[in-house]
Design a protein that fits this description.
Elements (H helix, E strand, L loop, with lengths): L2 H24 L4 H8 L6 H16 L5 H16 L2 H5 L5 H25 L3 H27 L5
């Protein structure tokens, strides 16, 4: 594979990863609306029960608390901006990809430690862990392609 083909693949995978970050961020803004919409769907009992609990918590929460999820959303968007460097010069900015891979790994202990403390069902903790597992896949592909690029003077 030519270096130019590798650059195209790197950029495609990075754009997909950033799109996932942006989507995750943007969906953190309208939480209550999203949960209300989900609760209108025919869902299995355990999921309907959980989302009903989430909706009740969101509806009873002081709107001040939603400011925290606004910052969570903002963080996803800002993290996406960090990938401008690897998109422009993957070889020099490989550290951003390595940092993101470490972040994906760190999702797992966070979900498995904070989940029980916050009363999150184990099956939902696994969904949270899946973001790290699924996120690291495109990053690993990108990392492998970056490592295969020739050194530039």
């Amino acid at each position: 594979m030519s270096p130019q083909q590798r650059l195209v693949r790197i950029r495609v995978w990075l754009v997909l990863f950033v799109a996932g970050l942006v989507l995750s961020g943007v969906t953190a803004f309208p939480l209550l609306t999203e949960v209300r919409l989900l609760n209108r769907l025919p869902l299995p009992g355990f999921l309907a029960d959980w989302l009903g609990r989430v909706q009740a918590a969101l509806e009873s929460a002081d709107p001040l608390l939603f400011y925290g999820t606004d910052w969570l959303a903002f963080a996803h968007l800002v993290i996406g901006l960090a990938f401008i460097g690897p998109l422009r010069d993957p070889k020099r900015n490989i550290w951003v990809v390595q940092w993101a891979m470490l972040c994906c790994v760190a999702i797992i202990p966070l979900a498995l430690i904070a989940g029980p403390i916050r009363g999150i069902p184990f099956w939902w903790q696994l969904i949270d862990c899946s973001f790290g597992v699924l996120g690291i896949i495109p990053l690993w592909i990108v990392h492998r392609h970056i490592k295969s690029l020739p050194e530039t003077p």
